[in-house]
Design brief:
About 35% of the residues lie in helices and about 20% in strands. Helix 1 packs across helix 14 and helix 4 (about 75-90) packs across helix 7 (about 140-145). By secondary structure, it is an alpha/beta fold. It has 2 domains: about 5-245, Thiolase/Chalcone synthase (Peroxisomal Thiolase, Chain A, domain 1, 3-Layer(aba) Sandwich), CATH 3.40.47.10; about 255-410, Thiolase/Chalcone synthase (Peroxisomal Thiolase, Chain A, domain 1, 3-Layer(aba) Sandwich), CATH 3.40.47.10.
C-alpha cells in the first residue's frame, strides 16, 4: 500500500518577501518584486529587468567558515528557505531524510573563477572553496552537510521544470518507503552573470521604464519574461512519520505528472495537456475537483500561448487531445504569480507549490496583475485580476522547461 505523503514545512526567500508571512502579504496585495538593475545595462544585457532579491548575510547563522565558503549565491538563498521550513517541521533525526534540490547553473561562481585566472594566471589564487561553489550540485552538497542529511541527497537539473520534478521524485521515494521524509528545494541565482545566455536569446521584456508592469503572463501585449530567483523549500513526509513527530500536515501531495515535448525549445500544447492529465491520473481524483491551477506562464509569446491552449482544452475537455481521464475540470482559477515575481527558473517548480500552499492556507487567490487584454485562449480561462477570497481544496502546479521537460504536481488540503 502506498504511503500518504504530506507537506509539513515550507520556507521561501524571494523578490516578494524573505519569509512566508512577507510573501503572503505581497500575494494578497498583488505587490511586484521586479525592478531594473542598471549594472545589467552596463554589463551588456539587452534588458536590465530582474527580480530584486537581497543576498542574505549568513555571518550570524552559526555556520563554520568552511560551510560558508561552500555556499554559492543560490546556496545562501536555499539555506534561508530550508532553515525556515525546518522551524515549521523540526525533524531532528535525519538518518532517513532525503534532500533533493532543483538547480541548473552556478554561472556567477564560474565567472569569478575565470576572472581570477585571467588576472593572476595562478589556480592557487582560487582557494579551496571554488570547486565546491562551482559544481551544479553545490547547493545539495553544501546543505546536506549543514543540515546533517542522512538519506539521499542530489541535484535535479531539468531547467525550469526541475522544481516540479524534485517534488515528484521526493513523492515517489516516500511512497516507496525508501525515505521517511524529504527536504525539497528550488534555488536560482540572480547575480550579474546568471542570465547572460538567456538575455542573448532576446526573450526578456524590454519595458525597462515600467518594471512592475513588465511581466505580463497571458496578456496580448506581453513582450518577454523577467528573470528572477531566490529559493523555496517544502518538506515532504509520510503521514505516519509526521504523526510520530507530532508535525501537523499543511497539505497532501496527491499526484505527479511528467512528459517530454518533441522540441527542445518550442512548447507543445499537446505535451502540456498530457503532463497535466498524467498528474490527475496519478492523484486519482476527479478533474472537476481542482480549485486552482498554478500556471507556468512566464510571459513569453509561445510558452503562454501553448499553456493557455492546453488549459482551455483541459477545462472544456475538447476532443483535440485525449488521455482517458474522462471528465471536464469545470472552471478553476488560473493563476500566474510570475506577474509579481518574474520567472524564478530553477526555483519556480518549488516556489509554485509554496505560493499555492500560502493561498490554500489563507483562503484567497492572488490577483493577476498586468492582464489588460488576454490573448484569445486565455480570455476563456478563469483568471482573477482582483484578490479573491475563496476555499481552495485541490491545486495543480505546472513547471515546464527548455529541453521539452514538463512536470505537474497536485496538492490538496490535508
Amino acid at each position: 500500500m502506498q504511503q500518504r505523503v504530506v507537506i509539513t514545512g515550507m520556507g521561501i526567500w524571494s523578490c516578494i518577501g524573505e519569509d512566508v508571512k512577507a510573501v503572503e502579504q505581497s500575494l494578497r496585495l498583488g505587490r511586484s518584486g521586479i525592478g531594473a538593475d542598471p549594472r545589467r545595462t552596463e554589463y551588456g544585457y539587452q534588458s536590465p529587468l530582474t527580480g530584486i532579491v537581497p543576498v542574505p548575510d549568513l555571518s550570524h547563522e552559526g555556520l563554520r567558515r568552511s560551510q560558508r565558503m561552500c555556499l554559492s549565491e543560490a546556496g545562501r538563498y536555499a539555506y534561508m528557505a530550508v532553515k525556515q521550513a525546518l522551524e515549521q517541521a523540526p525533524i531532528t533525526d535525519r538518518h532517513r531524510v532525503g534532500l533533493i534540490v532543483s538547480n541548473d547553473s552556478t554561472a556567477c561562481e564560474l565567472a569569478e573563477v575565470e576572472d581570477i585566472m585571467r588576472l593572476h594566471h595562478d589556480s592557487r589564487r582560487l582557494g579551496a572553496g571554488a570547486v565546491f561553489r562551482s559544481l551544479n550540485s553545490t547547493v545539495s552538497m553544501a546543505l546536506a552537510s549543514v543540515f546533517g542529511i542522512g538519506g539521499i541527497s542530489l541535484t535535479v537539473s531539468a531547467a525550469c521544470a526541475g522544481g516540479g520534478h524534485a517534488v515528484g521524485l521526493a513523492l515517489s521515494l516516500i511512497r516507496s518507503g525508501q525515505v521517511d521524509a524529504c527536504i525539497v528545494v528550488g534555488a536560482q541565482e540572480v547575480g550579474l552573470h546568471a542570465y547572460t545566455s538567456f538575455d542573448a536569446l532576446g526573450i526578456f521584456s524590454q519595458r525597462a521604464d515600467d518594471p512592475e508592469n513588465a511581466s505580463r503572463p497571458f496578456d496580448a501585449a506581453r513582450d518577454g519574461l523577467v528573470p528572477s530567483g531566490g529559493a523555496a523549500c517544502v518538506i515532504l513526509e509520510s503521514a505516519e512519520h509526521a504523526a510520530m513527530g507530532n508535525r501537523k500536515p499543511m497539505a497532501t501531495v496527491r499526484g505527479y505528472g511528467f512528459c517530454t515535448s518533441p522540441d527542445i525549445v518550442t512548447p507543445s500544447a499537446e505535451s502540456i495537456f498530457r503532463c497535466m492529465s498524467n498528474a490527475i491520473q496519478d492523484a486519482d481524483i476527479n478533474p472537476e475537483q481542482l480549485s486552482m491551477i498554478m500556471s507556468h506562464a512566464t510571459s513569453t509569446q509561445d510558452g503562454d500561448h501553448a499553456e493557455a491552449d492546453a488549459l482551455l482544452s483541459l477545462s472544456l475537455w475538447l476532443p483535440k487531445y485525449t488521455c482517458g481521464v474522462g471528465k471536464p475540470i469545470g472552471n478553476p482559477f488560473v493563476v500566474s504569480t510570475k506577474c509579481l515575481t518574474g520567472h524564478e527558473c530553477w526555483m519556480s517548480g518549488v516556489s509554485q507549490v509554496v505560493y499555492a500552499l500560502i493561498q490554500m492556507q489563507g483562503g484567497f487567490v492572488a490577483p493577476h496583475i498586468n492582464l489588460e487584454q488576454p490573448e484569445p485562449a486565455a480570455a476563456r480561462l478563469n483568471i482573477p485580476t482582483k484578490p479573491t477570497v475563496t476555499n481552495i481544496d485541490y491545486v495543480l502546479c505546472n513547471a515546464f522547461g527548455f529541453g521539452g521537460t514538463n512536470s505537474s504536481i497536485i496538492i490538496s488540503k490535508p
